[in-house]
Amino acid sequence: MTETILAAVPSDGLVRAACPHDCPDTCALLVTVKDGVAVSVRGDPDHPTTHGALCAKVSRYTERTYHPDRLLQPLKRTGPKGNGQFTPVSWDEALDDIAARLKTIAARDPQAILPYSYGGTLGFVQGESMAARFFHKLGASLLDRTICSTAGEAGLNAVIGGKLGMDVEQFEHSKLILIWGSNSITSNLHFWTYAQRAKRQGAKLVCIDPWRNDTAEKCHEHVQLRPGTDAALAYALMHELITHDWLDHDYIEQYTVGFAALRERALQWPPERAAAVCGVPVEQIRQLARDYGTLSPAAIRMNYGLQRVRGGANAVRAIACLPSLVGAWRHDAGGLLMSSSNHFKADGAALERPDLLAGRKPRTLNMVTLGDDLLRSSSPAFGPKIEALIVYNSNPMAVAPEGNKVREGFARDDLFTVVLEHFQTDTADYADYVLPATTQLEHLDVHKSYGHRYWLANNAAVAPLGQAKPNTEIFRLLAARMGFADPCFAENDEQIAAQTIAADVRNGDIAWARLKTEGWAKLPGATAPFARGGFPTPSGRCEFWSQRELDAGRDPLPEVILPYESEETAPELAARYPLAMISPPARNFLNSTFVNVDSLRQLEGEPALLIHPDDAARRGLADGQMVRTFNDRGAALSRARISTRTRPGQIVGLGLWWRKLSPDGQNVNALTHQRLTDLGAGPCFYDCLVEVAPA
Ligand SMILES: Nc1nc2c(c(=O)[nH]1)N[C@H]1C(S)=C(S)[C@@H](COP(=O)(O)OP(=O)(O)OC[C@H]3O[C@@H](n4cnc5c(=O)[nH]c(N)nc54)[C@H](O)[C@@H]3O)O[C@H]1N2
Ligand SMILES: Nc1nc2c(c(=O)[nH]1)N[C@H]1C(S)=C(S)[C@@H](COP(=O)(O)OP(=O)(O)OC[C@H]3O[C@@H](n4cnc5c(=O)[nH]c(N)nc54)[C@H](O)[C@@H]3O)O[C@H]1N2
Ligand SMILES: [Mo]
């Protein structure tokens, strides 16, 4: 770096920042500021995984921050819920009224108040710090934040003991890379750089995905399996590794438990059986096993796409067994990466202060079942009816499953809703008060990553726009009005940031004071975490067979669990709704964020639905025609794209459109259901039967 990096909120200069979005890449940013305005955001060329490149979305971050629709003052609803009529009010008026309402409800039972938040920012400061303290002190219902990754997490925990794995920077040295349940070019672009380098050095790339996404197009091989059948595929691979003796017996002996039992189960899964379940050619499974058993180092980039189905956690469990069988973990460039989260240690207790509950044990509600829960009355089993909802860092009206129920819940006249937002989202339209929040360019934060091993600092580049305030400040002001006097409510963002990075061997000597000037710092620790075992499981080994699972009354081995909604498991439903729908992200959106940035929405055009030519012909659909996708839960309009990139019997509805920017005020979540995964209580977005007809 030759340019001087200035401290927070300069009028001119270059500011070190971090991308806040819910993406494994967590890029290091450099923000150029002129006359107090952020004029450009670019990737830090010196940060190894960012290497100076940003995705199309975040390179337009200034377009989002200075968008003419930014919310710049508190708003109070004046029309019916959902129709977007609001009037500006002062901060004092809004906060006084909100505090009064919350006090009244809390006097009856604070559990009738529910926070709802997720991945708008992954920063520790603007995420669950002051907000969590506020809700803990209040004694509000707790929220189980399950909407993305908890099934996969449970699967990894069972086998390898945590969200740990390969260093992404090592993938360029791999000889075989399985990209499993991940559209890297869309959702993990900076990993793709390493995969391409490996490819240039002769590595073989295989994509395992129900549709030929942009990543599959560029891999050597595409295993186009039916959604929710990954565990069967993994078992067939194990079958072949075992019968051909492509095993690392020494690694298995020293560092694993339960091989004999796993072997017995795997031998029940010859490739022919898996081929029928997965809907892929048997020869392709055999070849994949041969590659995995003979090319070394072999690496798996597994991601969250495969765990959004009923058997999602067990699929992750089955796949997580593979690297130990072949001893791939011995190599820096071998093993598996799903999430690097647990390589880091954040001080959750200091940030969130669960001690403020002071012995109270509020109920916990799962964010996936928001639709049902908003419609429940008080009962001994459920507890009090939800009377107030405080939403921040999330857009549940677009992202939560079974959207019609979510809407019905939000529309309740007896529900008091506050939404902290940058924009007037679908969710904000249902708020009683909308409070304007700052963006990443206007506030301070500290970030870890779930795809690499660097801590990052985000310095504020510019002053808050209009009357916008950071989430922390909004909860600080509310806390004062509620009469919460604990000293932690007076801490500023700088103090919170300084508490985030726990004093822990995992973080080495990384501390906030240096991080904020240097921008990023890599964790210490071995590149290959399990080269000599050391799995953080109860046995200290890779647990093919899990005593914990057995004790919990479940299968001690990874189990093949087919989707809730499939021909085999729900034949009557499949007769009416024969098409399996998956709804992964569109490349130019980040969940529902960026849908309102015109230049990005223009790149996506309209909600698109990929349908196989055979299925289109059977329904008399033409390419480019508006179609209606429907099931018993709802319907949504989209533009048909007839394509062999999807399988017969399977459609791909790219997400996640704002409802009000879609043709019919709906999106893919009109169709999805609220049932939970096998472990981890996650959502089953990609486990969903539908039918399609001309609109
Ligand atoms: N551009 C962009 N980037 C993003 C996001 C975004 O919305 N847009 N979202 C971010 C977030 S929050 C997350 S969690 C990650 C998500 O990114 P990933 O973890 O990669 O997950 P998905 O994008 O949900 O799905 C990835 C792939 O899995 C496939 N898939 C679906 N069902 C199955 C299955 O049963 N088996 C297998 N093998 N594959 C399946 C999908 O078709 C898709 O191509 O990306 C982050 N990055
Ligand atoms: N059908 C289907 N549904 C899905 C998925 C899918 O693949 N298919 N993906 C799921 C996944 S993986 C995830 S992670 C969830 C994501 O669900 P959410 O976490 O709700 O993600 P976003 O839609 O990006 O909404 C985040 C909102 O937070 C706001 N925000 C950002 N920063 C701040 C801030 O600093 N302060 C405040 N107050 N607000 C802020 C943004 O403006 C945005 O409106 O969606 C899930 N839903
Ligand atoms: Mo996610």
TrEMBL record:
Its cofactor is Mo-bis(molybdopterin guanine dinucleotide). The keyword Transport does not apply. Pfam families: Molybdop_Fe4S4, Molybdopterin, Molydop_binding. SUPFAM superfamilies: ADC-like, Formate dehydrogenase/DMSO reductase, domains 1-3. GO terms for molecular function: iron-sulfur cluster binding; metal ion binding; molybdopterin cofactor binding; oxidoreductase activity. Keywords: Iron, Iron-sulfur, Metal-binding, Molybdenum, Oxidoreductase. Gene3D superfamilies: 2.40.40.20, 3.40.50.740, ADC-like domains (2.20.25.90), Dimethylsulfoxide Reductase, domain 2 (3.40.228.10), Formate dehydrogenase/DMSO reductase (3.30.2070.10). Residues 12-69 form the 4Fe-4S Mo/W bis-MGD-type domain. InterPro entries: Asp_de-COase-like_dom_sf, MoPterin_dinucl-bd_dom, Mopterin_OxRdtase, Mopterin_OxRdtase_4Fe-4S_dom, Mopterin_OxRdtase_prok_CS, Prok_Mopterin_Oxidored, YoaE_C. Belongs to the prokaryotic molybdopterin-containing oxidoreductase family. This is Anaerobic selenocysteine-containing dehydrogenase.
